[in-house]
Amino acid sequence: MKTYIFTQILDAVEKATEIPRERILSREKQPEVVEARALLFHFLLKKGIRQAEIARLTHLSRQCVSAHTCDFDTRKGKDGSVMDLCCQDIITTLSTSRP
Q1: Residues near 56 by Cβ (< 8 Å), separated by ≥ 6?
Q2: Backbone angles phi and psi of 16, in degrees to 5
Q3: Which of 33, 59, 63, 98 is most deeply packed, by most CB within 10 A?
Q4: What is the pTM of this model?
């Protein structure tokens, strides 16, 4: 079930950000990739998947997951920001793609 949730959210983040999953799951540090990764981690946490499990699913360190999630609300910014719009797109995609 966790793998299904992971795949569903990764698909939604990939669609909203237009960043390929390979880049999202990489160790790239370009701002747009870091933001996409933060979105992925945020929505996985909201679905109840723990940081250790996210690290296992993404093949990234637990410290990496923690760093991306600890200041998510600050990075998300104000209404109308690109990250905020991506959040809305992801929420919409996830709400319409339920089995």
Answers
A1: none
A2: -70, -40
A3: 33
A4: 0.89
